[in-house]
Amino acid sequence: MKYITIIGGKDKEGMPENISLDLAVGTVTALVGPTGSGKSRLLADIEWLAQGDTPTGRYVLVDGFTPASEERFLTAGKLVAQLSQNMNFVMDASVGDFLRLHAESRAAERLSRSIGTLVASVIQQANQLAGEPLTADMPLTALSGGQSRSLMIADVAFLSESPIVLIDEIENAGIDRRSALSLLISKEKIVLIATHDPMLTLMADQRLVIRNGSIRKILHTSSREKDILVTLEMRHRELDTLQQALRLGLEL
Ligand SMILES: Nc1ncnc2c1ncn2[C@@H]1O[C@H](COP(=O)(O)OP(=O)(O)OP(=O)(O)O)[C@@H](O)[C@H]1O
Ligand SMILES: [Mg+2]
């Protein structure tokens, strides 16, 4: 897979969304817009490879073609890795069992490293994003929101071969969002992130401005904006240091 095409449908009032947009592998696209404007909806349209059969009426093509209807749901599962806004584990397994299962089914043959090493590195990476460390023998259901999120991010980054990565709102989980996004960005993937965070927005190559259920504008991140990102990152590190100190019970 080299690219997907989003063909506009209609906004919440039924007005046409005049757009045909190609997203190629290697591009990171942010979705911005007020709460309720339709960012998660656009991610869902891509996840389902919409064919005029969602509330927006959009179509999503893969490499310029309509995915065959009988293949659509099968294909979607392989094409798309999704980090959704609400995520809870309902699986009765330990962190280690869960990762071993993924490593075996998805990536193992391709990778020279052993399953054990792979599982250990996913856990290590997840722990760099979250606070209190998680371990292989913890039950999935015992993980906190931030720990679950970190585990899923590390899992997608290391074990998933899906060329499309959809990320909905990393910001509320109390994890290192910037590192998380860097981990998920890859030259072989199309990454879309719905976000209210200016830093994550400017890390993307371009942003789609969503309003009232439709894509209103496509803006490319300018070099001036990339400079602003550098300043934002500096401030972020300052805030981060304060946050860490307060979390650890220190006085400032
Ligand atoms: N073009 C559209 N036509 C009809 N309904 C739409 C359209 N776009 C979005 N919606 C609906 O509007 C509601 C809000 O959209 P959505 O959840 O995507 O907002 P959001 O931008 O992700 O908000 P938040 O920032 O709070 O996560 C949803 O029920 C969604 O299905
Ligand atoms: Mg949303």
Helix count equals 8
SSE pattern = EEEHEHEHHHEHEHEEH
Return the structural class: alpha/beta
What helical percentage do the residues reach? 40-55%
Strand content: 15-25%
Summed up, the domain count is 2
CATH architecture name of the largest domain: 3-Layer(aba) Sandwich
3D shape: globular
Question: Your description of this structure?
Answer:
With 252 residues, the protein is of the alpha/beta class. It has two domains: 3-221, Rossmann fold; 224-252. The chain is 40% helix and 18% strand. The chain contains eight helices and nine strands. The strands form two sheets. It has a six-stranded mixed beta sheet with strand order 5-6-7-3-8-9, sandwiched between helices. A three-stranded antiparallel beta sheet has the order 2-1-4, with no helix packed on it. Helix 6 links the parallel strand 6 and strand 7 (190-194). Helix 3 packs across helix 4. It is globular and about 55 Å long. The chain starts with a strand and ends in a 5-residue tail after the last helix. The structure holds adenosine-5'-triphosphate (ATP) and magnesium ion. Adenosine-5'-triphosphate (ATP) binds at residues 10-12, 33, 35-41, 55-56, 194, 213-214.
